[in-house]
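User:
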Amino acid sequence: MPTPDFRAREPLLRRREVCLRPAPSRERLQAVIAEVLARIDDNLAVFTHAFPAPSSVGGVYPAIGNVEWTNGFWTGMLWLAYEVSGEPRYREAADRQVRSFRLRLDGRVNIDHHDLGFLYSLSCVAAWKLTGDADARDTAREAADVLLRRYLPTAGIIQAWGDLSDPGQAGRMIIDCNLNLPLLYWASRITGDRKYASAADTHIEQAVRYIVRADGSTFHTYFMDPKSGAPVGGKTHQGYDDSSCWARGQAWGIAGFALAHRNKADPALLQLAAQLANYFLNRLPEDLICCWDLVFTGPPHPRDSSAAAIAACGLLELAGALPPSDPDRTAYQAAALAIVDTLGAHYLLPRAEPGTGVLAHGVYHMPNRIGVDEACIWGDYFFLEALVRLTRDWEPYW
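Assistant: Predicted structure:
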């Protein structure tokens, strides 16, 4: 993969600070997992035949059908709960939901977007990996076919949103897509057909070239000319402005480039993820829980616990893949532990009525004032994933 002309990795200014923080004990982490499982139990009656909305209202998720880009995160939480506990009630609930993903695909219910990885990796790929469910495998492979149709060969990207004939969305890639590409890599592995991985490889190379800025910050979205393949320019959709760095996007980048290395063993991807990680960590408030955009570093600007949880998973993936000689490897592990510990100690919503979320103080869409200072279902998922990563040898669903 051609390496862009980036500056050297920004020095990690908080290395000493994060490494000196006392790490939570394994017993403490297990206790927080138990608290998350208790909240899942509270919600099973509401969210076995339905799903949580993307963000809560007053801390409580409305119940919706299998219609949103976020539905896979709840099903993924059920699979994580089943893995760590072995309790059949979680598998039974997840199995019911996996069947609804088959119906969604057959009915083409809101699948004209790139978020099929979020939907099908955490539901059907997880089911295949954990239970050997052949129907789930076939559903996920067909979802990968639908995702592959969004690949624009001239531009070399997976188009993010909308009908492919919509000129307003033509040639748009976004940083979030990094976490959807694993569905394509998985499809190549199970079919032996390189077409899926080739599209993912080319997309990640374009994301390296154009979504990442020279200082290690990221655009949320970048447009390519779908006819000529020429770069058009970067913009934001959910960040503060076009020149700022949306925190959740930066977290998607850390996790996504590190996961891409799991599938495409190029050391440049790890160095890029590390560059993004240093930029992210150097701009955090004192408790290491980011504001919603990294241009802000403290009050009165809202935190985004969901971005912090994603970043923790990305830091753990990155630390596990870097060579021991990397100067920041230990700090990434320590920072992830500190973030997870802070979320568990200070950001858990109290157990209340059914439908209550796990993590307080998330942000869905600040410019549209949606889900501000609320639970976000992807934040709940990634918080539990980070806890699982820290307490067991875990094979990602990604």
